[in-house]
Design brief:
The protein has 209 residues and is of the alpha/beta class. The protein is built from seven helices and ten strands.
Length: 209
């Protein structure tokens, strides 16, 4: 049986559909969903079986894992990131929600969650109500990784119906939230003395620095 295809509107996602998606995630399901950049593939951060399925789809081997958490806002930041200094927090507050991923030193909780010796974590608060509402009702972040091919632009990264054709037998729910973007988030490493852009994406950090 293929994935369920659910249409949602980012301006006002229907709560009953969000709750249905949340139940699937709680049961270890994988979802593909829109963000303010490319479509993402995600699961509950606390479900190891779901994480193993996600790694299989992405071809991630063993302990080599670079995944980000999608949060509703910055209120849970201290749970997943080690001490975040004031300038970094202020920068994140200015930029988020938005098309940015912030790399921070992970709290002691993260390696236990992901079962890896991981010293950093990526944090995303996308400017899209669909994933934000999902994590709000779930009560904790979801793991996110892009379905985007890093080395090429392919049509299905933006068109939900093409995404469905490619992933219907791999995941449990595919959310049609309209056409996505074909540029990933801008990644900013905040683990050094100054923030450093390590991947140029859709977000322009310059006005916020």
């Amino acid at each position: 049986m293929g994935a369920e295809f659910i249409r949602l509107y980012p301006e006002n996602p229907e709560e009953d559909k969000i709750l249905q998606i949340v139940e699937v995630i709680r049961d270890g399901g994988l979802i593909i969903y829109p963000t303010d950049t490319v479509y993402g593939l995600g699961c509950d951060i606390f479900n190891n079986k779901a994480l193993e399925r996600l790694k299989l789809i992405k071809g991630i081997k063993g302990k080599n894992i670079n995944l980000s958490f999608i949060c509703y806002d910055l209120s849970q930041l201290s749970e997943y990131a080690k001490h975040v200094d004031t300038p970094t927090f202020k920068l994140m507050k200015k930029c988020l929600p938005g098309p940015f991923t912030f790399i921070l030193e992970s709290s002691s909780k993260v390696p236990k969650i992901l079962n890896v010796k991981k010293k950093t974590i990526g944090i995303r608060v996308p400017d899209n109500n669909i994933p934000r509402d999902i994590v709000k009702f779930l009560g904790n972040p979801i793991i996110t990784t892009s379905i985007h091919h890093e080395d090429e632009i392919v049509d299905y990264t933006t068109d939900p119906s093409l995404i469905y054709d490619d992933f219907e037998n791999l995941v449990d729910i595919i959310i049609d939230g309209g056409y996505g973007n074909n540029q990933p988030s801008t990644v900013i490493d905040c683990t050094g003395d100054l923030p450093e852009v390590v991947r140029e994406g859709l977000g322009d950090i310059t006005p916020y620095l």
